[in-house]
Amino acid sequence: MQPKFEKMTNKELIQYALTHREDLEPLRVLYSRRTPDSEATFYPPPCTPEGEPIPENIQIMETAIRERIAAIEKKKESEKEEENECS
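-> structure tokens emitted (87 positions)
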């Protein structure tokens, strides 16, 4: 009997897939949970095909990374506040 993959977290699915490499079902479930390309954010390449850095593109990605980190930290803070309110 196989586990109920739909009820597993992504982390659990990845761990299961790594230990049961012959089983493709957890990979199908993971793939179905991914963000659709229509909602994904694509960034320009950081370097030219010759390997030269493109400073403008690197700046775009650095800004995006900083914004993402700030959003994650803000979410963690609000979750802590909610926990404190419930206690």
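The helical segments are 10-19, 25-33, 55-86.
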